[in-house]
């Protein structure tokens, strides 16, 4: 390991601009002649749009246009799409209701746009929006799963009778039935996985420009995947052909999944920029983020586990209702199916699993992938089941887990996934040691003497990352391939540009990816630049989500580097009159092994571009590209243990300790990895204790601001104690697995298991607010 | 419209703004100081914190006119040329930022916290004091470390002056 190579805790290259206020986010972009958009949104969860009168608004100062949903339909702008086709158990395709970018006829959730005002200033657009009169005819709304599936419920889409998106299943129903018939013990649990609002700190924004001379569009947007945005905007939304559309995602202030999707506002800004002949800026405010950013989770499940007399798991049966909101967002269909049910085996040998998932439309904001996406829901379910089983069987929860751990790899689960490698005993042992698990009973007794209820809770998660092998996901219904691309340009002076289709919005790629180059070439990272987030610069890419950037994007970089190095070695060998096989790369030099002959990288690069003395037949230049398609998912796994105290008088929870032992394979920059875990844990703990999107029965989001939706604050969280165990991922040359989502996947079960342990009542829903905990204690 | 005269990062400025203009919009839109961010509309998140006459203020909660005659420091004015403020350096060295969006407000609040508490900062106090600044990326772990680290650095720097 060099000082800046793989494994080094290098401080981030990108930080200087952020700490000095020089970051460049979408709302910081200004264009000559820029106008401002403000959307008019439905105050009703379900209503007919009878008419829109903009006469008075058009007379107001600075107003350029009021554009409506009907105009967007008339201009043949495509409806929003869902990119993953799921087939119900009866063989029928998923039932997708039409979702126009602005509603011409019917609104189906509070906040859905019906029109947009374009004006000279943002305030003028807002003022004029107040003067637009929209005539709504209110319809009854179905605000949650229960209300949407009951007989006689209001119907959202004519395409989806009974508000059912799909009724899907996975696994072997007969084998599970057989397992339960042989069970010595059966454990059952009803679980709710609460609805969350992602709340990246930067609200979504778009700056769109149509260049009439070139017939070319430019869109600055808060995206995790600008190339996917360009593809969808051109191929499906019909706004501009791909070669006439440049999408730039500059600095982006957090994503967590919510900035994967191509939302109506970006579509409308782009469409409107041509319509009004002016650049158009839209910047969402926090209220709009609450109402229109895709929400996460929102499952209601029933789980049953069969165990034999030796406490070995025989089978698992799960029935889940998943809330989709009012429309199917871009990847929504995959989240409660292939990203959820495929992980229900957890870290355990479970010979038979059967899962049914019913997708349900409700008059709420669309739901899609949020940090972890399906895997937190699976992990929460299985880990609460393990804890519940241990309590019911009166065995130690750690021992029950250990007795059922998968120990031989590769391991084929009954739900598609083939785990390549892992060591679950190593991570649970590390976590138990870190928290002094053996000493817990004494600590609990002491807390009791002080009037506090102390609990300890485990969570042993596994996730599937490195999303994903294109052929595999294609066979499961995905509309895209999930490879990644990279291009390495060694410039004539020896500096290096790495162009990647991954997008960094907090993950630190500008540092981590440089470390891969530094490791291979022995050059300082100051000599390397990472270029990303611009479809005019980077050839193509599938973007950043599902903890895929390093395992997939990083591997594409390695593959491109291998090509660069192979060519550079040929050039060096030619210049040094040596055999190519004798050339080694060290400290930025190409050396003839066993001699003192060498040539520095800049001289090799210069030779490649001057082309005065290259091997016969070699093309000039030193620039290579690679597309990398993974062969399997990666499987990060780990063990989290939470120790906390509950005040029985108030129901308030206080952390004593939170330990995490993760196996992410090889760590490129441990400092950045730890940061990712911290952030994930905060979101998992937030889900467990604080966060919950609440709709009233008319479909109004009553938690639509930071005053009402409890974001984790510094004083809500403990400091975390992290450690790592390592099994190298055999599926990629870096041996990496991905670390971005682990915390959010594993933390919530650890917290709830600890609280239910403390209070001695297993019936507790998230968020476990003091009120809920107090009632769980006192009835 | 009114003319608002104030000092921003040591420079006297005079800006014509609508009376309803907030300080944050004057900074971002009129002065192009886009390091100060807007993350909410309820004065909760703290991404917009600047210093007004040496005190941390949420610039989304102050009218531009209220800042007339004041001395405003934004994140762009915190470093001395190329030399980072100890708080900026501590955020970088402790990996106290990820996406960077909350960071300017977080740093400006943190400087104010250290000023107010002097050397008497501990983890609990820092966590309590950061209640008005929301970060979605870091889980605060490294932010707290950075603030405590910077408190030490600022003490040393002060002693040296």
Describe this structure in words.
- The complex is a heterodimer of chains A (779) and B (161).
- In chain A, strand 10 (216-221), helix 7 and strand 11 form a beta-alpha-beta unit.
- Chain A has 779 residues and is an alpha+beta fold.
- Chain A is globular, with a radius of gyration of 27 Å.
- Chain A folds into 3 domains: 15-20 and 483-628, Aldehyde oxidase/xanthine dehydrogenase, molybdopterin binding domain (Aldehyde Oxidoreductase, domain 4), CATH 3.30.365.10; 31-139 and 204-292, Aldehyde Oxidoreductase, domain 3, CATH 3.90.1170; 299-468 and 632-778, Aldehyde oxidase/xanthine dehydrogenase, molybdopterin binding domain (Aldehyde Oxidoreductase, domain 4, 2-Layer Sandwich), CATH 3.30.365.
- Chain A has 20 helices and 28 strands.
- In chain A, helix 10 packs parallel to helix 19 (742-759), helix 15 (509-521) packs parallel to helix 16 and helix 18 (670-689) crosses helix 19 (742-759).
- In chain A, 28% of the residues lie in helices and 23% in strands.
- Chain B has 161 residues and is an alpha+beta fold.
- Chain B folds into 2 domains: 2-77, Beta-grasp domain (Ubiquitin-like (UB roll), Roll); 86-160, Orthogonal Bundle (DNA polymerase, domain 1).
- Chain B is built from 5 helices and 5 strands.
- Chain B has helices spanning 23-30, 86-93, 103-117, 123-129, 141-160, and strands at residues 2-8, 11-17, 49-52, 55-58, 71-73.
- In chain B, helix 2 runs antiparallel to helix 5 and helix 3 crosses helix 5 (141-160).
- The longest helix of chain B is centred in the last third of the chain and has 20 residues, at 141-160.
- Classes of the chains: A alpha+beta (779), B alpha+beta (161).
């Amino acid at each position: 390991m060099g000082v800046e190579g793989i494994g080094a805790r290098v401080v981030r290259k990108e930080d200087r601009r952020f700490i000095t206020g020089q970051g460049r986010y979408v709302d910081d972009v200004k264009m000559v002649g820029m106008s401002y958009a403000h959307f008019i949104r439905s105050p009703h969860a379900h209503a007919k749009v009878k008419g829109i009168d903009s006469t008075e608004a058009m007379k107001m100062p600075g107003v350029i246009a009021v554009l409506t949903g009907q105009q967007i339909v008339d201009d043949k702008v495509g409806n929003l799409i869902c990119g993953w086709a799921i087939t119900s158990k009866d063989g029928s395709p998923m039932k997708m209701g039409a979702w126009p970018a602005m509603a011409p006829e019917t609104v189906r959730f509070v906040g859905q746009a019906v029109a947009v005002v374009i004006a000279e200033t943002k305030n003028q657009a807002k003022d004029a929006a107040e003067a637009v009169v929209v005539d709504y005819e209110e319809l009854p709304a179905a605000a949650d799963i229960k209300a949407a599936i009951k007989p006689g419920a209001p119907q959202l889409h004519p395409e989806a009778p009974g508000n059912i998106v799909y009724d899907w299943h996975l696994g072997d129903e007969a084998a599970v039935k057989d397992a339960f018939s042989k069970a010595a013990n059966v454990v059952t649990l009803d679980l709710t996985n609460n609805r969350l609002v992602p709340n990246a700190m930067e609200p979504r924004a778009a700056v769109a420009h149509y260049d009439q001379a070139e017939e070319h569009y430019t869109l600055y947007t808060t995206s995790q995947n600008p190339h996917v945005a360009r593809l969808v905007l051109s191929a499906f939304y019909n706004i501009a052909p791909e070669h006439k559309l440049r999408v730039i995602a500059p600095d982006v202030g957090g994503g967590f999944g919510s900035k994967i999707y191509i939302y109506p506002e970006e579509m409308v800004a782009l469409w409107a920029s041509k319509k009004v002949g002016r650049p158009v800026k839209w910047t969402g405010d926090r209220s709009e983020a609450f109402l229109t950013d895709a929400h996460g989770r929102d499952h209601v499940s029933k789980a049953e586990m069969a165990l034999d007399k030796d406490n070995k798991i025989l089978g698992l049966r799960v029935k889940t209702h998943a809330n989709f909101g009012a429309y199917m967002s871009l990847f929504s269909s995959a989240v409660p199916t292939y990203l959820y049910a495929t992980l229900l085996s957890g870290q355990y040998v479970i010979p038979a699993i059967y899962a049914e998932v019913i997708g349900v439309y409700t008059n709420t904001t669309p739901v899609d992938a949020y940090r972890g996406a399906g895997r937190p829901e699976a992990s929460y379910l299985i880990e609460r089941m393990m804890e519940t089983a241990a309590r019911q069987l009166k065995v130690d929860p750690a021992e029950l887990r250990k007795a059922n751990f998968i120990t031989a790899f590769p391991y084929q689960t009954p739900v598609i996934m083939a785990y390549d490698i892992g060591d679950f005993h190593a991570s649970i042992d590390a976590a138990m040691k870190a928290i002094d698990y053996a000493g817990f009973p004494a600590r609990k007794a002491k807390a009791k003497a002080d009037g506090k209820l102390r609990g300890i809770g485990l969570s042993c998660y596994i996730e599937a990352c490195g999303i994903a092998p294109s052929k595999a996901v294609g066979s499961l219904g995905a509309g895209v391939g999930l490879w990644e691309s990279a291009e390495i340009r060694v410039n004539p002076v020896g500096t290096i540009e790495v162009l990647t289709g991954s997008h960094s919005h907090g993950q630190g790629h500008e540092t981590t990816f440089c470390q891969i180059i530094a490791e291979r070439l022995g050059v300082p990272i100051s000599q390397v630049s990472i270029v990303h987030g611009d479809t005019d610069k980077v050839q193509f890419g599938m973007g950043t989500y599902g903890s895929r950037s390093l395992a997939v994007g990083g591997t594409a970089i390695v593959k491109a580097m291998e090509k660069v190095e192979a060519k550079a070695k040929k050039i060096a060998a030619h210049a040094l009159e040596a055999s190519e096989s004798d050339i080694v790369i060290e400290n930025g030099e190409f050396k003839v092994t066993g001699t003192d002959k060498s040539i520095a990288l800049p001289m090799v690069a210069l030779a490649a571009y001057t082309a005065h003395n290259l091997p016969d037949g070699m093309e000039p230049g030193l620039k290579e590209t690679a597309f990398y398609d993974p062969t399997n998912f990666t499987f990060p796994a780990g063990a989290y243990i939470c120790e906390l105290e509950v005040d029985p008088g108030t129901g308030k929870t206080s952390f004593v300790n939170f330990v995490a032992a993760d196996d992410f394979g090889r760590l490129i920059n441990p400092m950045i990895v730890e940061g990712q875990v911290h952030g994930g844990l905060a979101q998992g703990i937030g889900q467990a204790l604080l966060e919950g999107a609440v709709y009233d029965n008319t479909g109004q989001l009553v938690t639509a601001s930071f005053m009402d939706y409890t974001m984790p604050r510094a004083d809500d969280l403990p400091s975390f104690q992290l450690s790592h165990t390592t099994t190298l991922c055999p599926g990629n040359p870096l041996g990496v697995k991905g670390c971005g989502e682990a915390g959010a996947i594993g933390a919530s079960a650890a917290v709830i298991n600890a609280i239910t342990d403390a209070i001695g009542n297993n019936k507790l829903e998230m968020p476990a607010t003091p009120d809920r905990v107090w009632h769980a204690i006192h009835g | 419209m009114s003319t608002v005269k104030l000092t921003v990062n040591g420079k006297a400025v005079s800006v014509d703004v609508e009376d309803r203009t907030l300080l944050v919009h004057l900074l971002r839109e009129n002065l192009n100081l886009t390091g100060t961010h807007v993350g909410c509309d309820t004065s909760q998140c703290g991404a917009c914190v600047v210093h007004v006459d040496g005190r941390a203020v949420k610039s989304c909660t102050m009218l531009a006119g209220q800042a007339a005659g004041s001395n405003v420091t934004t994140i762009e004015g915190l470093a001395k040329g190329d030399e980072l403020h100890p708080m900026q350096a501590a955020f970088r060295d402790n990996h106290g930022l990820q996406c960077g969006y909350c960071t300017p407000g977080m740093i400006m609040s943190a400087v104010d916290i250290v000023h107010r508490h002097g050397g008497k900062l501990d983890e609990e106090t820092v966590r309590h004091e950061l209640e008005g600044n929301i970060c979605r990326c870091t889980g605060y772990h490294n932010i707290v470390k950075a603030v405590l680290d910077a408190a030490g650095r600022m003490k040393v720097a002060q002693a040296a002056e």
